[in-house]
Design goal:
The structure holds two protein chains of two kinds. Helix content of chain A is about 85%, strand content about 0%. Chain A is mostly helical. In chain B, α2 runs antiparallel to α3. Chain B starts with 14 loop residues before the first strand and ends with a helix. The chains are: A mainly alpha, B mainly alpha. β1 of chain A pairs parallel with β1 of chain B, so a sheet runs across the interface.
């Protein structure tokens, strides 16, 4: 059986709805935290201009990453909420697309983190 | 273990008509969730071990400030156990999303199972984000 509108059961719909609600909460908290961090980093850029990037690269990446991933989660949550209400396959595909970006970015950051951890912390211990 | 809550031969199971691009994207999502899940579980697991070591060390001082010691132990364990649990559930959700892309039937059931795992992931995410947000206030 092939469907364009997915015939989710009532139970599945409520699961998807509550998943999208928690995604919305997590996304809102991440966006707010990232936005707040970026707002406070602006002062340094006002004073030192782009020179501030030399010492603030990591905080800018963390704040920007939190903000961006939070926005993507908000978008995914909106799409999944549409899936819960009418089982729309295009909304599901849009939500999964946003979630793919979130997890691929997280996976890349974690792999970089592991490499940095080994190079800067574990390797010197054995040399 | 992940298959336990999927009823076999349940009624109303459907193959969802995803495009090839969607299926390729879901494979990518499953891979990324697998990587994030495993790495998060391993590193949070190391954190749990360190928290346990901290617990053993700090219990020697429980007579001086019992409340402070208990609070710090609960905080340390919470901050490490929750991400470890989240990592395990992320990996499971990724596995189900991979099955949606990889199989031609039972897509709907696998998708529902993935959403059940994702709900737990985002509950933990929200719980862990609250202290960060409070710290900023």
């Amino acid at each position: 059986m092939t469907v364009k509108q997915i015939p989710f059961t009532q139970d599945d719909r409520s699961t998807i709805r509550s998943t999208s609600m928690w995604m919305l909460i997590a996304g809102a908290l991440m966006t707010a935290s990232g936005g707040y961090m970026l707002y406070h980093l602006l002062d340094a850029f006002r004073i030192f201009g782009l020179m501030a990037l030399r010492v603030l690269t990591l905080p800018v990446l963390v704040a920007g990453g939190l903000f961006g991933l939070g926005i993507l989660l908000l978008f995914a949550s909106r799409r999944f909420s549409a899936v819960a209400s009418d089982g729309d396959i295009r909304a599901l595909s849009g939500g999964l697309r946003a979630l793919t970006i979130v997890y691929v970015v997280q996976a890349i950051l974690m792999i970089i983190g592991v490499i940095l951890f080994f190079v800067s912390f574990l390797l010197p211990m054995f040399m | 273990m992940a298959d336990q809550d999927i009823p076999q031969d349940a009624p109303g199971l459907a193959r969802i008509d995803f495009s090839e691009a969607d299926e390729a994207r879901m494979h990518r999502l499953a891979w990324a969730m697998g990587v994030v899940g495993v790495l998060q579980t391993v590193f949070a697991g190391l954190g749990v071990l360190m928290a346990l070591w901290f617990t053993v060390t700090v219990f020697g001082h429980i007579g001086r400030a019992p409340l402070a010691v208990l609070l710090s132990v609960v905080m340390m364990l919470g901050v490490t156990i929750l991400p470890m649990w989240q990592g395990i559930v992320i990996r499971e959700a990724g596995e189900f999303i991979g099955r949606v892309a990889g199989s031609d039937d039972d897509d709907q059931e696998y998708l529902a199972a993935a959403f059940r795992r994702l709900r737990v992931v985002f509950i933990i995410e929200a719980v862990l984000a609250v202290p960060l947000a409070l710290q900023m206030i």
